Amino acid sequence: MGSAKTQQAAVTRTGVVGGGSWGTAIAHLLASKGIPVDLWVYEEEVREQILTERENKVFLPGIKLSENLRPTGSLDTATGDKDLVVVVCPSHVLRGMARRMAEHLDSQTILVSATKGIEYGTHKLMTGVLGDSIPQIPSGRIVALSGPSFAREVAMGMPTLVTVAGTDEEVAKAVQHAFVTPVFRVYVNNDPVGVQVGGAVKNVHAIASGISEGLGMGANTRAALITRGLAEIARLGERLGADPRTFLGLAGVGDLVLTCTAELSRNYSLGRKIGQGRKLKEILAGMRMVAEGVETAKSLFEIAGRTGVEMPIAEMTYRVLFEDMNPAEALMALMTRRLKNELRDRVVL
Q1: CA distance 252 to 200
Q2: Is residue 349 domain-resident?
Q3: Tell me, what's the pLDDT at 12?
Q4: Is the N end or the C end of the chain the one with fewer CB atoms within 10 Å?
Q5: Biggest alpha carbon distance in the chain?
């Protein structure tokens, strides 16, 4: 393994897999630094829009995209002969996509997972799915990017802070330097488990926060859900071997607060509609972008049952989404749980 300086200088050929809002924003961020970026986009209409109008009108309308951003429908073009590839596709299709990418990647490529989720069934984090599916790339060259970062605000150049986490600090620093700009500050973290747990679980709590809003609850309720949601994230992270300090950082409380309070959050918006009485199937039918918290809620319900980690907010969210539990009854069930001592509630923070 070369020095950090060598690693940083090597990141010039870059690809992004996933042309949704976040994938497009990341590609635009890198391309605006003068780095040619090949962006793999599934939808032909989106590829044509970017190519001819320099805009992704479907997923990121109103943003003029860099001329260095090159849309493509070829995974070979997007991932072959690259120093760095960023993967930004929905968690439930990541394994299949990674297997297709594996044909084009070599062992020296750095993989960055910008997908937030936990795979249903295997309960693996996204870097684990990538490692399974692309075995020629060493685990130290697979990192996770997370933090409070709405795609639109990043694409607009609003100041944003994120963290990149991996087991090889030199690789993480190479990614840090590839992404950093005067308005996009990147920290390095050596706890990929904690960073990914925080990034995934907060989406479920954002749905819960939206449900409370839809029910007409106020700021007190939202603050309670965020605070106790952080406790759930910390408990699960502790069981999976995460560093508890991670949850006080950008990928923990930072991302949780953002996603649980802002209208730009798809998970929060979905939850609000649930709280207003709409059904999940109906809401999803009208969405072109993915609300990752829906799939993650299924994974968390299984993980909590298997490990015994207490996650009542995640459990109630699951029951509302998939067992048709009345949202108001779910909130009452949370409020009437057995009384506890807060400081003895196995919160590791």
Answers
A1: 10
A2: no
A3: 85
A4: N
A5: 60
Two tokens at 30? 């890198």
Single out the catalytic residue among 82, 116, 173, 202.
202
The pLDDT of residue 288 is above 80: yes
> Same structural domain for residues 207 and 175?
no
To the query of whether residue 202 is one of the catalytic residues in this protein, the response is: yes
Domain count, the chain: 2
pLDDT tens string 150-160: 999 999 999 99
Residue 185 main-chain phi, psi, to 5 deg? -95, 135
Whole-number percent of the chain with pLDDT over 90? 93
**Predicted model pTM:** 0.94
Q: State the DSSP string of 54-99.
A: S-BTTTBTT-PPPTTEEEES-HHHHHTT-SEEEE-S-GGGHHHHHH
CB 65 within 8 A of CB 71: no
Q: What is the 3-state secondary structure (H, E, C) of 271-293?
A: HHHHHCCCCHHHHHHCCCCCCHH
Do residue 299 and residue 151 come from a single domain? Answer: no
Where do runs of H (alpha helix) occur along 106-156? 126-133, 151-155
> Which residue segment(s) compose the domain that 228 sits in?
193-344
Is 239 within 8 Å of 231 (Cβ atoms)?
A: no
Question: What pLDDT digit, counting tens, does each position of 245-286 carry?
Answer: 999 999 999 999 999 999 999 999 999 999 999 999 999 999
Read out DSSP for 180-218?
-BTTEEEEEES-HHHHHHHHHHHHHHHHHHHHHHHTT--
